[in-house]
Amino acid sequence: MTAASSDSSVPSEYDDAARFPLDSSGEERLIGRLLSRYRSAPALLGPGDDAAMIAAPDGRFVISVDTLVEDQDFRVEWPSGVRTSGYDVGWKSAAQNLSDINAMGAIATAAVISLSLPRDTPLEWVEGVALGFSAALEQLGAGRCSIAGGDVGRSGEISITAAVTGHLSGAEPRVRSGARPHHVIAVCGHLGAAGAGLALLDQPAASGVSERPWSSDEQRCVDLQLRPEPPLREGPVAVARRASSMMDISDGLLRDAGRIARASGVVMAIDSSALTFDLDMLRDAGERLETNPLNWTLTGGEGHALLATYASLEDVPSGWHAIGEVRAGQPQVLVDNQEPSALGFDHFSGV
C-alpha cells in the first residue's frame, strides 16, 4: 500500500491561516476563501447575489444533483491508512455530477455547490475541495461549466452536494427507456477499477494482505476510486451516433443495466467474454484480495463509465466496447444467459 493520499496537484501557496479549523474563520471569511479557490468559466450572474443566472442556449436544460457524505461515500481516513483529501472529494463531486449530465447527451454549463462541515475541519482541507472541483472541470473536459454559486453550513459530518446543469444543443436527451430488442449493448470508460480501488482502501493496514506496497495497477485503481475519470466527451458522441438509451454506471454494470432493462421493458444480455478490456489492470488487486476481477467489472461502482444501446454494431462509436445484446422478454439482466447472483451497490441495503 501507499502512504496517505496527499495532493501533489494542490498548490502550496496556503498561508498560515489555512491550517486553522473553521471555527477560527467565520462564515464570510470561509466563503471568501472558497471563492478565491474556485476556477471556472464565468456565469451570466455568479456568486454574490441571492441566486445565480445561467444560460439555456436552446430554451431547455438538464439538471442533476448528487451528494457525498463522510463515512457513507468516502472516509477521511480509510482502514488502509490512506487519507482522503479535500481535493479528492471536490474532484469526485464534480466527476459524478458531470457524468450524469454526460449520460443525457448534454454538455455541462453550470454548477452550484453546498458544503456542510464540522467546525473543526481544517480550512486547508475545505479549500482543497474548491481546488479539486475546479481541476476536475478543466481536466475532465468540462471547461465550459461555470461555478455559479453555493452554500456553506455547519454539521456533524462532512458532506458536499452539487447540482449541475447542461444544455442539449438542440438534440433530444438520451434516456433509459429507448433500448429495443436486437440493439447492441456497449460501454465506454473504466469498468471495475474504482470497485477494486475501494476494496484496497478498505483493507486494514494491519492485515498481512496489505504489507507489500501496491503495484502501479493497484495504485491506479485507488486513484480511480478517489478521483474518477468519466468519459465526458463521449456523451455527445453517443447522441451523434444515435444511441437509443444511455446512463452512467455509478452503482455497477449489472445494477445499472437492470435500470435500463426495467425502463425499456427488455432483457439486457451481457457476454462476459467481451469484458476483458480492463481486466489486466485489476489482476494484481484480485490476487492480493483473492477476488475474481470479473466480479468488480460486473458489480463495482463509482467508475462512471457510460452504458448505452445502439441499433446496430456499426453505430457503436470508436473507443466503445460492445458487450452484449438487448432481447425481448421480462425485464432482467443476464450474464452468459444466466441470472447473476449479485448486482451491485445499493445505498440503503448497504451492498
Automatic annotation (TrEMBL):
Keywords: ATP-binding, Kinase, Magnesium, Metal-binding, Nucleotide-binding, Thiamine biosynthesis, Transferase. Mg(2+) 2 binds at D66, D100. Gene3D superfamilies: PurM-like C-terminal domain, PurM-like, N-terminal domain. Mg(2+) 1 binds at D66, D151. Substrate binds at D73, E302, F345. Residues 48-166 form the PurM-like N-terminal domain. It catalyses: thiamine phosphate + ATP = thiamine diphosphate + ADP. Its EC number is 2.7.4.16. Mg(2+) 5 binds at D251. It comes from the Bacteria. Mg(2+) 3 binds at D50, D100, D248. Residues 1-11 have a biased composition (Polar residues). GO terms for molecular function: ATP binding; magnesium ion binding; thiamine-phosphate kinase activity. Residues 1-20 are annotated as: Disordered. One of its GO terms (biological process) is thiamine diphosphate biosynthetic process. Mg(2+) 4 binds at D50, S64, D100. ATP binds at G150, D151, R176, S250. CDD domains: ThiL (cd02194). Pathway: Cofactor biosynthesis; thiamine diphosphate biosynthesis; thiamine diphosphate from thiamine phosphate: step 1/1. Catalyzes the ATP-dependent phosphorylation of thiamine-monophosphate (TMP) to form thiamine-pyrophosphate (TPP), the active form of vitamin B1. Reaction mechanism of ThiL seems to utilize a direct, inline transfer of the gamma-phosphate of ATP to TMP rather than a phosphorylated enzyme intermediate. Belongs to the thiamine-monophosphate kinase family. This is Thiamine-monophosphate kinase. It comes from Neomicrococcus aestuarii. The gene is thiL.
